[in-house]
Design goal:
Distance between the termini: 32 Å
Structural class: mainly beta
Shape: globular
Strand content: 25-35%
Number of strands: 6
Order of helices and strands: EEEEEE
CATH class of one domain: Mainly Beta
Low-confidence stretches: 1-5
Helix content: under 10%
Length: 93
């Protein structure tokens, strides 16, 4: 995978840009397994799909608004709003 312009480091995954304040939507049914600050990803929400046929798969929503609307351990449904896009800072306020 090629590094995207503006990315600070090479990483696996896909970066999808969105304006600050837009909704983060669950891409699958699953469990919120992390909500908090995660270094270079800034404030992050991790959604884990345990029904994946080969085990589990995790989706990380980075650079979230730190005013979280979801809690770790919550079950969510595909299409549910789980957060908002925040500023792209990588330091704790």
């Amino acid at each position: 995978m090629l590094q995207l312009l503006g990315a600070s480091t090479y990483h696996k995954g896909v970066d999808i840009g969105a304006p600050e304040g837009f909704d983060f939507v669950a891409v699958t049914d699953g469990t919120i397994t992390f909500v908090g600050f995660l270094g270079g990803g800034g404030f992050t929400i991790t959604l884990t799909d345990s029904n994946y046929e080969n085990g589990e798969i995790k989706y990380s929503y980075c650079h979230c608004d730190p005013n979280f609307i979801i809690n770790q351990g919550e079950q969510v449904k595909k299409g549910q709003i789980i957060g908002k896009v925040g500023p792209k800072y990588v330091f704790r306020c």
